[in-house]
Amino acid sequence: MATTPEGPTSVLDEWLTHAVQDPNPFLQFTAIRLSEDPPCSAEIEDYLARLITNELFDQTLLADLAHALGWGRTAADIIARRIPKLTQIRRGDFGEALANDILGHFEAFSIPIRKLRYKVTADQTLTGTDALALKTLPDGSISEVCFVESKFRGSRDIYAGVEACKQLLRDTTAAIPDILTFVAARLHDTGHLSYDSFLEYLASRADTREMETLRIALCCELAGWDEATLLNIDEANLQPLRLSVSICLISGLTAIVDRVFAQLGLTASDEDD
Prior knowledge:
This protein is an alpha/beta fold. The protein has one domain. It is 42% helix and 18% strand. The chain has helices at residues 11-15, 42-56, 59-69, 75-81, 87-107, 160-172, 178-190, 195-203, 228-236, 253-263; strands spanning 16-20, 30-36, 131-136, 142-153, 212-221, 243-250. Strands 1-2-6-5-4-3 form a 6-stranded mixed β-sheet, with helices on both faces. Helix 2 crosses helix 10 (253-263).
């Protein structure tokens, strides 16, 4: 079994089932259902803690910093300082990290730039689209660009999907969406292998909109889930192009998140100071 979220792993396969809903009862989007089988275990929580760590900090950089700082600064110390004190921020970060991992593992997307790594402070919120996910062809050219908006809900909220859809439409109908210039800049700064392919996509974007898709990633407490969340997206009739909605339902979700962040150094006295 893999020990890092970025490599091939069976952990998600052991925990979640992933299926496109067929037949599709919705007019505005395709639904993708993720459900637990079996429930979350201590082993899975360990994996989720590593997943959050990876989302917050490049692991090579983390090791380099821990080595360079010396004087007792371990990797665990550094990560603990990156843990949000605000409950809402922690839950949002968890939902974003899990959504990215699901896209990578089950649907063969790559997330070239992990946005949470660019927070200056732990409780900072980064505006705009949560993530940009890519699919590439064997020659390295980009075949799909997916704009991802994730929503974490620990209780019933039947308008969470509508809210996410509106956010995506606001972001992606701009002449040049902010997430595209953000990703381009970070690819350039890091010398990423996808930089040239990404520039080619941007250069021909007026003619290649069909390769762009939208994804709403809902991470919700099972006990608070209501199918009206999906029906409301249809009834809002926002007419998004190539939208899919993934619904990940987890029992005891907020307690799991609390335990995962506790592993990373959060203490009760730190919360919501």
